[in-house]
Hints:
The chain has 571 residues and is an alpha/beta fold. Helices cover 54% and strands 11% of the residues. Among the domains are: 5-86, Gyrase A, domain 2 (2-Layer Sandwich); 265-305, no CATH class; 380-563, Isoleucyl-tRNA Synthetase, Domain 1 (Orthogonal Bundle), CATH 1.10.730.
Amino acid sequence: MSLPVYARYRAAFAGAIAEALGMPASDVEPQVKPAEPAHGDLSFATFALAKAQKKAPPAIAAALAQQVKVPGLEVKAVGPYLNARFTLLPFTAETIDTVRTEGLSFGGGDEGRGKTVVIDYSSPNIAKPIAFHHIRSTVIGHCIANLYRALGWRVEGINYLGDWGKQFGLVAVGFHEYGDPARKDDMAHLVEVYVKANARAEQEPEFDARAREFFRSMEAGDVAALELWKQFRETSLRNFERVYARLGIHFEHIEGESFYQGRMEPVVEEVGQRVGVKESQGALIVDLPYAENEPPILLKKADGSTLYVTRDLAAAVDRHERFQFEKSLYVVATDQALHFKQFFRVLNALGWPFASKLTHVNFGRVHGMSTRKGTLVLLDDALDQARELALEKVRQNIQEGRIQTRDAEALAEQIGLGAIIFGDLKHNRTSDYTFDWEEALSFEGHTGPYLQYAHARTCSVLQKSGGAPKAYDASLLTLPEEQALLRELVRLPMAVRDAAEQYEPSLVARLLLDVAAAFSRYFTAGNQDRDKRVLVEDEALRAARLVLTDATRITLAAGLTLLGIPTPESM
Length: 571
Ligand code: ARG
């Protein structure tokens, strides 16, 4: 695959400047930035050069303007800047043809070929209520997996279920007291039991001790205890899998903390030999200098049972052995920053070079994501609530003649997903935000349904006209709104790369909003009657505009798919 259009022009512009200056292109390229739209598409600031050469910046820019010649770029000095603008041709044709040739893989590439990224995401806890952070981890992790896959990486997505640990003992002893044996396969019931048992354990140390003892017996291989655990685990998993199917998520591996049962001893020993361990009140802790108030890193409790960090250490080593990864990402809430800091610190202290390839891809908190029925209990609840609210909207829109669909329920499911996923991904990963159902489901503004609607609109124009023709004349796309739209489409490959590098899906989310806004300005400008802009009398012009509409459709569909959002063709 060749360099994306924008990157190619940028490299050519930087190369020509470098040649004029007798400098290496690699020094110039990072200095070429997108220009202010009024000034063109690419810009090179001459301040640093001016300082080095002791000349006035405008003089340098003017001199460069004489020398720098790149086919397809109109180069001009504007004050201290050397600016370049894509000429109508070949830029228009190149952009459109790239989008159409690549189709839904537009935005991707193959620079990741031969490299592996491990992505630990979603990772809910069995038989425990889900929390906002599982939704965020699922949605963000899925998008990051899509981005890397699109760039040619081998992606090993791992759902690291919280299926081991004392909480499980709580469910087990709780079930004995509060459980209904006939409802062993009802996740909601297990969660109810957990909540009661947890509350009781906080009151009654004796009850808490029983829970701990239960987990200890699991670790000791007690057959009956493990049998019960297995049943509960399966119940939870079935519930989670329904949700993953709705979201279109497929994990390469579903292996939780229990995967490492009985396999932690080697790591504990390594830590003992190479870093040092010591006993503290019967527990085994890593012997490292700790900061004031920093809790020590516990590898084993006094009763010999293992901990979250012990399992994460074993898992990291195992993943490295199995996948030989270039990167290993943990998509987990910022709340666990200390855990990851300490866990990475132990790996570093062990002197394992792969330690530097691990990243905690942290994210902030969400407020307000509760449902009409109350707080979220199951992962399903948020999706159900979204579908329910979307269905009201869909019905209302059908009544008012704004949308048409044969299957309101199916469309509502898609719009509900669009609302939740986009409502999350449009925010900077690390910031906290408040989720507002009304806002997220709106068909206007910065929302998933708005983007889905824009995409459906491109589909409907194309449908009405029998589709976009193969041959067209790109030189007819001269309107400023057409050129502005093309300049958004051409940015998808960059947004994908930046988003992957920074683990920041919002960069793609925001680009799609820009695409939809530019399309809507183009589509509606100048006349009220909707499809008139594209479906004009002049056949050649109509063909060119249909092709541009098709390129917009593809870009929106490719981008939404990367975010994990369904793209209904009519709504
Ligand atoms: N199950 C954990 C929780 O719900 C998240 C696990 C994250 N992944 C990891 N390797 N620690 O908090």
